[in-house]
Each structure stands twice: as structure tokens, then as C-alpha cells.
Design goal:
Layout (H helix, E strand, L loop, with lengths): L10 E4 L6 E8 L4 E5 L5 E4 L5 H7 L11 H4 L8 E9 L1 H4 L3 E6 L2 E2 L1 E6 L2 E7 L5 E4 L7 E9 L2 H11 L44 E2 L3 E6 L2 E13 L3 E12 L3 E9 L2 E10 L2 E12 L15 E9 L2 E10 L4 E4 L10 E4 L2 E3 L1 E6 L11 H13 L4 E4 L8 H10 L2 E5 L11 H18 L5 E5 L4 H5 L15 H26 L4 E3 L20 E2 L2 H4 L15 E3 L8 H7 L10 H5 L6 H12 L6 H25 L6 E4 L22 H9 L3 E8 L2 E8 L5 E11 L4 E11 L3 E8 L1 H8 L4 E9 L2 E9 L13 E7 L4 E7 L3 E8 L5 E2 L4 E3 L5 E6 L11 E4 L6
Helix pairs in contact: 5-6, 7-9, 14-15
Length: about 850
């Protein structure tokens, strides 16, 4: 029936194998929500899932928070209390179910929940899921739901005062939040980056950020399914499936487990009233294994589990799993101790980046945004993403996509760059948070590792005189208490949760860390490393090849987004890197001028703002390319390279390789080539050139190595070819060009070495080596010619040049499209074909294509 109130349609679940209606039902409460500012009583239409800031924006109460310096004007929002309310209707079929449960997938953060005017729940953790039995309070017909959010800032200030002394929280931008030096982020189990970071703004949000669901059931329900891969080989996968079932009574129930048309298990099981744990063992013969991107297929089995009683289908759940073995290997060796992951018996060099949330306002992150990010990682030849500990435990779709595209996930718990308080209530809250998320994510084949926190172990440095100067601020008694709280969380609570709820995976207390009671440095020979000498300490890019890590889990360099993105948050009068607006969209205090200083070392000063953005992106790309190649050349000593960072949470100058709108920076294009399965890496070593070839392939490959020395006018000065066999999963120098052979060539610095590897005329990999900084080279002014032809996906562009064109940058006016390659070097006598995927089908590309290279920026 219809009336003036919200009517929520029931969503029924159906079995995949037949049309029998499932007894258990659920509805999502996502309509007719209202937001009220408690102090004023002002009420607005609201979206759930959503948050206060986006609802105020939708109602035109505030302007775009990301535009210019609007952030400053909106700091009042987090100091107010807000409430969300709605009315919904239950029909009789739904209401007459014996059990009705209200489920909140995510409440941000301090909430009082009222159902039909009765308080049913008080929450204090953004990262938890909340479930309340509410049959007695619900009624057929109209019901009322209200969620009252207390100001997280006001509660944080109270907790800070109660703690007697402040705690370190380096990235808490309290000054931007009009709190002076009062750092409150550590006292709330809320996304730390909401309080600001060195790449993000400060918007301390509140809201119903994940769905609200009512579930109805009679006989039994599946609480959770854990699929444990006891033993997996090419011939058989032995599975232990653990099903947690809540039963309304003592009864017999029929459990069937199948994948596709194959029934893996089907038997009656006796259930007791209340909680039941059912352990079921079965096997899959000749399984298709799950591999990371580049190593094989990402095959996923859909495991369908159904409960039936009295010939009625009660509930059915589907789990997609990938069958594989995966372990962290830390084995003593001649250098120290290894740190690498072994997938299906194969040591894997982990190629990837660090991920931060895709928006400050999380409900705005759509499936399409996630798909673009993870697909970008896969297309860039990555196999790993680190979910960094200052953000959130991501939505299920994020991990589904990582499973689909073969991207392993290094998963931090949500603690970063801060020390945290103690107390039984706080610890219990953390434990429940960890259990919720470990249980939610443990069936994903992509989850590789649980890590306690980001950078806290080294920042405090309990066992050395190093660190960030934190511990020196406190008395001996305070230091003892703070470190004791740290050990309780990261060496007691979290590892215990992983051990109990996901025992097949490894736990690593902090990133970076060298080992037990051994903090990470720039020279540790075990554990993982974060190297920030480049950028923070102004070390040159050449240092990337000197700093050796067993696993490099962070390093980076900044750039600006391109002009199209900058225009989204600026006016033309802001087009100066030292303007107030550009400074507001740069959260690393040294940032804009640090980019300018590094640029001066390698490039001539660009003649305008747009060119400065372009050269800045090329600068970042060259720096991270140098790092990735150094890390890969160093395998198997180093077995991981995760740069900081893949994405952005707002439009900003940052370390990202693609900006807030998903536009690829130069770095993303360079990363795609640097992470190629076969990397050719020529290195100038004194007066010689070493030619490394790095292979991730799982078989040896016979190939031809071609080396060409070409001057900028296109004259070929030297050419050599070698028949080689590229060794599988290895890094090796395949030839060295000696000083005597190169002496006459290197007298002319305006040359480039092009090193390429072919297999039966198929290009496996190519790279260039220049012999001086770009600003010291005499770059010619090229005449770039091109042809454009239409294809099924858009346009094919073929480019050629009469002289070297350094870092060709292609743009298209008034179209949001994508180039298959960009920022590349084009050599005389070579033709490059790329594809442009247009945003508009009717675009006339000839009239809108722009082409520049480095020499035009001077």
C-alpha cells in the first residue's frame, strides 16, 4: 500500500538454483531521511548512506568544501550535534517473523540510536558493525528511527582533558580545526585522516556512512562463514568450512554447499538453540589456482551455502574464494633475514603502491571509483596495494575488485603516526573493531598480511635513541605508561585477534619495523623500510639506488595535478604555487617550494604556471621510476616496492600517481612501464653501463637484447645485439659496456641509449638512459607529425618526429578521455602508436589535440 510515509520495499533473497523464496528477509532503510542541526532545529533532506557535510552541500547550506579555501569556513560543522531521522513501514509478512534485527554497517562515530523513541544503542567506533535485536520495539505499519550524533570534536576535547597529558599525533591539523595545539584524533576510533594529514584537509565528519538494514528470520540464520584452506596443491584443495549459525530452537537442518553444479557437501545437522558452530570438510579436485596479476589467472570459485528446514529454504550465502597458498617468508640469510611473500610456492616481488581513502566524504566513493582505482593498479602491472593505517577498513567492493584483478592487499589496522591511550574500555573497543574487520575480510584471497599500524614503532623508538622526538616530551612514568599501552594494542590485542580469527595469515606489528625490539632504519637488513631521505631530507634521486631494503613499503615524491584538475579548485588569480589557494591545497609544509627546488636541479625553469605543473609531474615520474628500477634490480635481496601513494582524497598537490578525479599523472604511465613483467634497466656505473634485465615471468625466456646509441638528431652511433636467455623470476646484469667502448660516445652528452629486449620480434621491454641532467642537455626543437584514425574504442594516433621529443605531453581540449600512453620520449626514425579513448563520442580530435614536449616549456 502507499501513503504519505516512506514505504520500504522488501528485498527477498532467492536461491541461484531455483526460484524458491528464501524464508529470511531483509530491507534497507535508505529513504526519506532528514538531517537536523540540534542547536537550531534546522532540518534538511538527507541521504543515507551519507554524512553531514555532503547533506549540507546538497541542500546548498555550504559551498564545495574542496573549492579554494572553503575548508576554513566549514570548521564549525564538526563542533555541532546533528541527528538523522526517518519513518519506515513494515508489512505484516515481515513483522510476523520471530526475530527482527537492526543492523548498522557503519556509524560515524558517537551516536545514540532511538527506535520508536526508545534508546537501543550507543556507539563510539566508526569501524564497527552494530546489530541489535529489536522485535519488541518494532510494530507493523509505521516505525520511527533516529540517530543522534554527538560532536566528535567536543567529545575528543573532553577525552583529552581526562587523559591529563596530550599524546603525539603528528598529522592532526588541530590549528586548522581552530583548536590550537589540542590534538584529539587519537582518542576516537574514527578515520585518523579526517583530522587532517600531510596530503588531506581537515573535515571531522559525522553520519550514517554505511547502510542500515533490518533482517527478519524465523528458524535460523547464518551469522558468518569462514573458509579455511587447509592444504592446496595443483591436484587437490582441502577445505575446512566453518559456519556460524544462530538457531531459534533445537532442530535438524539440512546444509548444502556447492560450487557451480558440483555439490561439495549435503547433510542434515543437529542445531542447538542459540549459537552453533558447524565444521565441514570437503575437497576440490584439480583446482584452478588464484594468482596475482601477471603470474596467472585470478580464478574465483563461488561457494554457495544454503540452509533448509521442513522443505523450506531458510537462507543462502555466496562466497567467492580464490584457492592459493600464501605465506610471509622471514628466513635468516647471509645479509640478515628475508622478507617476502610466497604465492603457490613462488616467491613474488610485490609491485604496487599505498592506498588512502578516495574521498574525505566516504559515502561519495562509488563502485565506479573503486573499479577505476583497482583496474588502474592492474593495468599498471601492479600486484599489491597497501591499505594504509590512517584511513579506513575499505568497503567490501574494494577487496572484491582486488580478488578479481589479482591485487594482493597489505592490510593495516587503523592506527597511524600517533600514540594511543589505554584503559579496558578502549582496549575492548579496539578488540571488537579488529574482530569485526578480520572476520569480514578473511575469506578474500587478496588479503596477504595484517599489519598493526603505520610508523608508530619507529616514531617512538623505545629501544634506541632514534625516533621522531616523541618520548623525550614525557616523564619516565608517562613514557612507561604510553609504551605499555602501545604494547598492549599492537603486541597483545591485535595479534591475538588475527591468531584466533584468521590463523593462516601473518601479523606484522608496525610498518616499518626490522624485527622484535628492532626499529627500522635506512640500513636494516630485515623487515620492511620506509625511505624518506628523498623529499624530506632533500636527498637526490640517485640515493634510491644506494638505500637497500628487504621490502620497501613506502617512499615517494610529490607533484601537482594537471591544470584541468587545478582549475576545479582555483581561479586564474590563484595560478601561482605560492598563492594562498595553492598553499591550502598542499598539506606538506615544505611541499610546493620543495618541488621547485628539486626541479631546479634537473630542469630549466618553466616559463608559465601550466608548464610548471607539467614539468613537476615529469620530475616526480622520473624520481619514482629511478626508485622502482633500483628496487627491482636488487631482487631477491629486496622483494617489494610500494610507492607512496596511488590516489588522492581531494584535489591537491601530493605524492599520488593519479589525482582525485582519477586522472593519470605522468607517474602512473611511468609506473606501468617500470612494473612491466620484463624490465630492461640500463645503469651508469662509473664510466661503464650495466644492462640489467629483471623478469617476473615463471619460465626462462630466450630473447634478443638490442642496444642503440642515438644522438638527438636521429643518428645511430652504435648498435649491438646479444642472444640471451632471461632467467625466470630474477634480476641479472646481462652485459656491461666498458669505458673503452663508450669513451668516444660519452664525449657527446646529447645522446641516448635505448636498450630493448625482443622475443621473436615481440617487444618484451625497453628503456632509455640519458647521460646528464635534462637541463644540461641541448634538446632540439622537434617537428612532431601525427595521423589520426578512428578505431572501435576511439582513435589511433601515430606520432613521429625529426628530432628527439622529450616527454611528449598530449591533451585534448574539452574532453574527459584517456591516452593509452603519455609523457613518453619520441626518438627520430621511430613511430609510436597510441590510443585515445574519448569521453565524448562525437569529438573531432584533429581540432582539439595539443602536443608539447620539454623543450617548449623553456
Amino acid at each position: 500500500m502507499k501513503n504519505l510515509y516512506t514505504i520500504i520495499a522488501l528485498t527477498f533473497l532467492f536461491a541461484c538454483s531455483n526460484t524458491q523464496k528464501v524464508s529470511n528477509m531483509k530491507i534497507e532503510i535508505n529513504n526519506k531521511w532528514q538531517l537536523t542541526q540540534v542547536k537550531t532545529g534546522d532540518t534538511y533532506q538527507a541521504n543515507v548512506p551519507g554524512c553531514v557535510h555532503t547533506d549540507l552541500l546538497a541542500n546548498k547550506i555550504i559551498e564545495d568544501p574542496y573549492y579554494r579555501t572553503n575548508e576554513k569556513k566549514q570548521q564549525w560543522i564538526d563542533k555541532e550535534d546533528w541527528s538523522y531521522s526517518t519513518e519506515f513501514e513494515l508489512d505484516n509478512d515481515f513483522y510476523t517473523k520471530e526475530h527482527l534485527e537492526l543492523i548498522f554497517k557503519g556509524l560515524d562515530t558517537y551516536a545514540d540510536v532511538y527506535l520508536n523513541d526508545s534508546l537501543i544503542l550507543v556507539t563510539d567506533n566508526m569501524f564497527r558493525e552494530w546489530q541489535i535485536s529489536c522485535k519488541k520495539l518494532l510494530k507493523p505499519g509505521l516505525n520511527k528511527l533516529k540517530v543522534y550524533f554527538h560532536s566528535p570534536v567536543n567529545i575528543g576535547l573532553k577525552k583529552l582533558e581526562e587523559n591529563i597529558y596530550p599524546l603525539p599525533a603528528t598529522n592532526d591539523q588541530s590549528e586548522n580545526g581552530e583548536l590550537g595545539d589540542k590534538k584529539i584524533s587519537v582518542f576516537s576510533r574514527k578515520a585518523p585522516y579526517h583530522y587532517g594529514w600531510d596530503w588531506g584537509p581537515r573535515f571531522v565528519t559525522s553520519g550514517i556512512w554505511r547502510p542500515v538494514i533490518i533482517k527478519a528470520w524465523d528458524l535460523a540464520k547464518i551469522e558468518n562463514i569462514q573458509i579455511i584452506q587447509d592444504n592446496v596443491s595443483e591436484t587437490e584443495a582441502k577445505i575446512n568450512q566453518v559456519i556460524s549459525i544462530k538457531s531459534a530452537k533445537k532442530q535438524n537442518i539440512f546444509i548444502e554447499i556447492k560450487t557451480g553444479d558440483s555439490i561439495l557437501y549435503s547433510e542434515n545437522t543437529k542445531l542447538e538453540e542459540g549459537a552453533n558452530t558447524v565444521n565441514i570438510n570437503y575437497s576440490i579436485k584439480n583446482p584452478k589456482l588464484w594468482w596475482t596479476n601477471g603470474l596467472g589467472e585470478q580464478y574465483l570459485y563461488q561457494i554457495q551455502t544454503s540452509l533448509t528446514a521442513d522443505n523450506q529454504l531458510i537462507e543462502q550465502k555466496d562466497n567467492k574464494i580464490g584457492l592459493r597458498t600464501l605465506k610471509l617468508v622471514q628466513k635468516p640469510d647471509e645479509f640478515g633475514k628475508s622478507f617476502h611473500f610466497e604465492l603457490n610456492g613462488v616467491p613474488v616481488f610485490m609491485k604496487g603502491a599505498n592506498h588512502i581513502p578516495n574521498d574525505v566524504f566516504l559515502p561519495r566513493v562509488t563502485r565506479e571509483v573503486y573499479e577505476h582505482e583497482i583496474k588502474t593498479a592492474a593495468e599498471s602491472n601492479m600486484n599489491t596495494i597497501r591499505v594504509w593505517g590512517g584511513g579506513i577498513y575499505e568497503d567490501d567492493i574494494f577487496y572484491d575488485l582486488c580478488d578479481k584483478y589479482g591485487i594482493l592487499v597489505w592490510q593495516d589496522f587503523m592506527f597511524a603516526c600517533s600514540m594511543y591511550p589505554g584503559g579496558e574500555d578502549f582496549w575492548e573497543n579496539i578488540k571488537n573493531e579488529a574482530v569485526d574487520n578480520v572476520v569480514r575480510l578473511r575469506n578474500h584471497p587478496s588479503i596477504a598480511l595484517w599489519c598493526g599500524n603505520n610508523e608508530i614503532d619507529g616514531a617512538w623508538s623505545e629501544y634506541s635513541n632514534g625516533g621522531w622526538g616523541w618520548k623525550e616530551r614525557y616523564t619516565p612514568e608517562q613514557r612507561k605508561e604510553i609504551w605499555s599501552n602501545y604494547e598492549k594494542i599492537f603486541h597483545d590485542i591485535l595479534p591475538a585477534v588475527v591468531s584466533e580469527y584468521d590463523p593462516t595469515r601473518s601479523y606484522w606489528p608496525s610498518s616499518p619495523m626490522a624485527g622484535p625490539k628492532e626499529h627500522a632504519t635506512n640500513s636494516n637488513t630485515s623487515g620492511d623500510m620506509h625511505y624518506w631521505g628523498v623529499w624530506h631530507a632533500k636527498a637526490p634521486f640517485s640515493e634510491f639506488s644506494k638505500i637497500r631494503a628487504r621490502f620497501m613499503s613506502e617512499y615517494g615524491f610529490q607533484s601537482f595535478p594537471d591544470l584541468t584538475t587545478v582549475k576545479k579548485y582555483t581561479l586564474p588569480e590563484d595560478f601561482d604555487i605560492e598563492s594562498e589557494v595553492m598553499a591550502a591545497h598542499q598539506r606538506s609544509g615544505i611541499g610546493n617550494l620543495r618541488i621547485k627546488e628539486y626541479m631546479s636541479w634537473s630542469y630549466k625553469t618553466p616559463k608559465n604556471f601550466e608548464y610548471f605543473l607539467y614539468i613537476g609531474q615529469v620530475l616526480q615520474a622520473e624520481g619514482i621510476k629511478a626508485a622502482i628500477e633500483a628496487h627491482r634490480r636488487d631482487m631477491p635481496y629486496n622483494m617489494g616496492s610500494l610507492y607512496w601513494q596511488l590516489n588522492d582524497c581531494w584535489p591537491v598537490a601530493s605524492w599520488s600517481s593519479m589525482d582525485y578525479y582519477g586522472r593519470w599523472k605522468a607517474l602512473q604511465y611511468f609506473v606501468k612501464k617500470a612494473f612491466n613483467d620484463v624490465l630492461v634497466s640500463p645503469v651508469l656505473s662509473g664510466d661503464s653501463v650495466d644492462i640489467y634485465i629483471v623478469s617476473d615471468m615463471l619460465e626462462n625466456t630466450k630473447a634478443t637484447l638490442l642496444m642503440e646509441f642515438i644522438d638527438f638528431e636521429g643518428n645511430k652511433l652504435l648498435e649491438e645485439t646479444y642472444d640471451i636467455e632471461i632467467l625466470k623470476n630474477s634480476s641479472k646484469i646481462y652485459t656491461t659496456l666498458s669505458k673503452s667502448k663508450l669513451f668516444n660516445l660519452l664525449n657527446n652528452k646529447n645522446i641516448v641509449l635505448v636498450a630493448s629486449v625482443y622475443k621473436n620480434n615481440e617487444l618484451l621491454g625497453t628503456n632509455q638512459l640519458y647521460f646528464d641532467n635534462i637541463k644540461n642537455l641541448t634538446l632540439p626543437k622537434p617537428k612532431i607529425e601525427y595521423t589520426i584514425s578512428k578505431n572501435e574504442d576511439g582513435f589511433t594516433i601515430k606520432l613521429s618526429t625529426n628530432k628527439l621529443a622529450k616527454n611528449i605531453y598530449l591533451t585534448v581540449n574539452d574532453d574527459e578521455g584517456f591516452f593509452s600512453d603519455n609523457y613518453f620520449d619520441l626518438l627520430p626514425g621511430k613511430t609510436i602508436s597510441i590510443v585515445y579513448y574519448p569521453g565524448s563520442k562525437d569529438i573531432l580530435l584533429d581540432s582539439k589535440l595539443n602536443i608539447i614536449s620539454v623543450v617548449e616549456t623553456y
